[in-house]
Write a structure and sequence with these properties.
mainly beta; 99 residues; single chain; 5-stranded antiparallel sheet
Length: 99
């Protein structure tokens, strides 16, 4: 099934929805999985998964760039989510950093 925002979902033999390899989609929120522009608090930019409380969704790429503050470790990014992690937390996955 393809959703708006070019997100591809499929169901495996355990009836869990997946987005890409190894990323589990929360069945309750599968319809709202999408790409978003965001400000991400990231002490280390080497990570590609962020807890929901470290991601602030913004209206546009320009807004993300304007609100970024590297001195405070707040970076502009495009993220996908929210998704449910294997630990049961809601997370966003990094699509790309906006440099």
């Amino acid at each position: 099934m393809t959703l708006p925002g070019r997100v591809f979902l499929f169901v495996d033999n355990t009836f869990r929805l997946h987005f890409m390899k190894g990323i589990y989609i929360d069945e309750e929120n599968a319809r709202v999985i999408d790409e978003h522009y965001a400000i991400v608090y990231a002490p280390r930019r080497s990570r590609n998964r962020f807890a929901e409380n470290t991601v602030q969704i913004v209206e546009s790429e320009q807004a993300a760039r304007e609100q970024a503050d590297p001195d405070k470790k707040l970076y502009a990014a495009k993220v996908v989510g929210p998704s449910r992690s294997s630990e049961g937390l809601r997370v966003f996955y990094l699509s790309n950093w906006l440099e």
